[in-house]
């Protein structure tokens, strides 16, 4: 007769639930994988499949029961690690969205918005377009697979029993947010500078010849200049996105290493 003791059941549950919490947290918070259009059952199934592959490769786990205070605390730690790793990649796409907002504002089409189901709010049309290009680039470069591979690597860098709440990795996460936002500003800088020059030229022309009616043609000119510059930037925009994604994957590893508590 097949029988299972409480100790064996606890070992099986801890071996699955603790890594499952970290993986599910990343799947639900990461770009594309955590999109609202993907059903929750698909996310849970994907996290469960990855956990079944990863769990046998983990080292010894803490000797704590699942529903004890220590077990719940470890579960919370794993969830926070997964959310932090997913947030690292979300910041990359937030930088792209910021660049689109700045470009659209300078072109005078900031009022053109679409409903973003991911953010549950209205987003600028240009930001939505750039974000769609970034997502397609992310998938074409197998960024989602690299992200999952980086997550699996974190189990070696940060053991399951790590106490991450007192680790210095959270400061590294805030620094990464600032660097990613500066990358978004650099992406929009050529368009913003060109539009600034165009607006200055239109202002000087309005002072020299007021009868032209700058306010009637200014909007069309700035929008045309912005569209032409974005079209000229497209060949270099995809490699720029690729570098952002590579930096995001590397930042996941650096942050995971910083989350490891000192021995």
TrEMBL record:
Residues annotated as transmembrane: 12-33, 40-59, 79-112, 124-141, 178-200, 212-234
Biological processes per GO annotation: bacterial-type flagellum assembly; protein targeting
Main location: membrane
GO cellular component terms listed in the entry, alphabetical order: bacterial-type flagellum basal body; plasma membrane
Presence of the UniProt keyword Transmembrane helix in the record: yes
InterPro entries with a match to the protein in the record: FliR, T3SS_IM_R
Topology with respect to the bilayer: Multi-pass membrane protein
Keyword line: Bacterial flagellum, Cell membrane, Cell projection, Cilium, Flagellum, Membrane, Transmembrane, Transmembrane helix
Physiological role: Role in flagellar biosynthesis.
Protein name in the entry: Flagellar biosynthetic protein FliR
């Amino acid at each position: 007769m097949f029988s299972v003791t409480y100790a064996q059941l606890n070992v099986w549950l801890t071996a699955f639930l603790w890594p499952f919490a970290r993986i599910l947290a990343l799947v639900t918070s990461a770009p594309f994988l955590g999109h609202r259009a993907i059903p929750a059952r698909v996310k849970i199934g994907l996290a469960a499949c990855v956990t079944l592959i990863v769990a046998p490769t983990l080292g010894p786990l803490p000797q704590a029961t699942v529903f004890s205070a220590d077990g719940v605390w470890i579960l919370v730690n794993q969830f926070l690690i997964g959310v932090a790793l997913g947030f690292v990649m979300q910041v990359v796409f937030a930088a792209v969205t910021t660049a689109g907002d700045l470009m659209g504002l300078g072109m005078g089409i900031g009022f053109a918005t679409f409903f973003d189901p991911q953010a549950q709010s209205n987003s600028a049309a240009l930001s939505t377009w750039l974000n769609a290009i970034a997502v397609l680039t992310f998938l074409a470069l197998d960024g989602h697979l690299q992200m999952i591979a980086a997550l699996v690597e974190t189990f070696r860098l940060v053991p399951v029993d790590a106490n991450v709440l007192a680790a210095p990795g959270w400061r590294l996460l805030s620094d990464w947010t600032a660097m990613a936002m500066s990358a978004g500003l650099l992406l929009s800088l050529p368009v913003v500078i060109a539009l600034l020059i165009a607006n200055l030229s239109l202002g000087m022309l309005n002072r020299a010849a007021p009868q032209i009616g700058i306010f009637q043609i200014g909007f069309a000119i700035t929008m045309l200049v912005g569209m032409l510059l974005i079209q000229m930037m497209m060949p270099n925009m995809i490699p720029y996105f690729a570098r952002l994604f590579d930096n995001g994957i590397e930042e996941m590893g650096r942050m995971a290493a910083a989350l490891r508590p000192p021995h």
